[in-house]
Structures are given as C-alpha cells and as structure tokens.
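Q: I have 286 residues here and want to know how they pack in 3D. Can you give me a structure?
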Amino acid sequence: MKVSGFTFLKNAGMLGYPFIESIQSILPIVDEFVVALGPCDDETEAMLIALNEPKIRIIHTLWNEKMKDRGYVYGQQKMIAQFNCTGDWVFYLEADEIVHENDLESIRATMQKYVEDDEVEALVFDYLHFYGNINSYLWSPGWYRRAPRILKNSIRSYAPDGLFWLVLDKNKIGRYPKAALVGATMYHYGWVRSEAQMNLKSTQVQKYWDKTHKEIDYSQIDGRIIKHFEGSHPKVLNGYFSQVEGIFSADKKYSLTRREKKHRWMLKLENFFGLELSKKHYKLVR
C-alpha cells in the first residue's frame, strides 16, 4: 500500500499557517508529499526546501487571478496537487490542519483495512476547530464536525472548491464519496493565528469568492459555542503558539447574527434529540 500526502500553498508563512508542522505531522505514514506551490512573496519555498525531506515534491503553479467564483481557484490548486499523487490513497491536509502523533498508527491501519474494499472511497476525520487560543475550540453545527481527508486514488474525484470532493459516477453528475470513519481527530488551527495574520489573509483571498475584506475581530462570536480544550496538542506544535491561561473570551455585548441564532436552535435540537446536524460532505457506509 502506497500513501500520498498533498496540499497547496501560497504565501503560507506570511499568512500564519503552521504548514511545516502540518506536513511533518503525517510524514511518518506517507510515501510522498506533493505540494502545489503558487507564486510567493515570502519564505514559504525556502522553508520547504530547508526541511531537506526527500518525500516532499514541489510543483510550481500559477493562480488564475480572474477566477472569482466560489473559491474555485482553491479547488484548481488542490487538484493540481492531487493529480500528481501516485499512491493508492491520497491524504489531503489544509496548511492549518495537523494530525496528532498518537493517531498515526491507527490511521495507517485503517487505510490498510479498507484499501481493497471497493465500497469505501474515503476516510473521515473528527474535527477540533481551535479558536482564539489553543485552550479553546468551537462546538456548533455551524462548524463541521467531520470531514473526509483521505481518498482512494482510483476513483474519479474532483474538488469544486477547497472544502470537499465530488465523485463522478457519470461525467455530468457528482456525489459525495462513500466513506468510513478513520477513528482519529484533525486539529484545525486556522483561527488561532493572530488577528493581524487573519486579516492579512482575508485581504488576499476574499477576491477568489468575489468578496471584499471585512475586518475580523475574534471577540465577535457567540460565546456559548466556545469550549475548553483539556487534551494534548500534537508534539510537532511545541513552541509554535503562545501559551496562555484560560479559554478565549467573546464579547459579552456581541449581537448574534441570524445565522448564529439558527445554529443555537440547531444545537438545542441536537442536545434534546441526540442529533448531529452539522454539514456532511460524505456518506458513511462503514
């Protein structure tokens, strides 16, 4: 069984992505790691080269600056990397996603278990979305709780944007992949970077959704969905984020948006009926 890791990057260092730590987190269980690297104005490429890691293969790409429809340029870059993978499985990581070392053995074992099972096309991770600081995570149906990150490289899949995949049974019809739970957690740190870095990112990427940048203030959020994280972070992150005390505090005077009010009601339904109402870009078959 051969496994390919992959991602796409552009100005990842400047924008506060822990991309080196992200890649390093799964290197022990992949045979190659493909990086689609767009034009950078920072040290992203130099940082990749400095790893001196033979498993990493860099593919230089261009970004379509005229593509402003629903983040499709992200899907294009994602697929450039995926189409250059040669493994039986392809393991995708966003540049702010990290796998815990305690899960590596079970992830590899799950891939081995299903590599010959034609019914399983993808493997799904549980998610922890950290927010504000590394002691805090979000728990709401408005933040996806599970997502596929490992796919069979033998299926006709493509990404309409950076978030999910569709499988083409027929040329004009796409569906979500059939999946099994991998039994591991993906640690997502995108909302732990500094507000300055997050706002810089927003100024650079909103155009790909045909949107304009709006100032981001981490305190402007529903404080009820912020939970205390009591576990351990991946060792590869040691020293990356500042150590702080306590959980992140939202603005108590913040007025909920209509969307956040909807998610509060959904959370009540989940708690009362034992449901799980977050968005799912997959169909569980195992």
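Q: Anything worth noting?
A: The chain has one domain: 1-286. The first strand starts at residue 3 and ends at 9.
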